[in-house]
Amino acid sequence: MSLISVSTIRGANDDADVRWSVVNANTGRLIATGAIEAGDHDHDLGSIAVNEFGQAVIGYNRSGRQLTDGKTDGTISFMAQAFDVDATGGLVAQGSEILLRVSDVNDLDASLVPRPAARHAVSQSRQ
Question: Which residues of the chain have pLDDT under 70?
């Protein structure tokens, strides 16, 4: 059995990234870790769901610079990335991220600002 968690971290380019980690629930040993990160976007406020079939979905907010024109628009998109849980308990991405919803407002300051609210989600897998 394993525990899968997601948290927001400061990425290499000073952007916010969503890090996922898989820990053996019996031993506490770190099995695998990875990140959802890309270009000029911040990825934060991740959440995770895992089912009994070894499938996981991580949902998160994405904001920041547009890839098309480079202007900071501040629009927040809610995205999802699907994963399979492999034989070792690690996550393997399935396909590309999926756009679920785009915010109707564009007033985000697309920078990573520490917030006191909970920024960590945990789910349990039977893998």
Answer: 65-74, 104-127
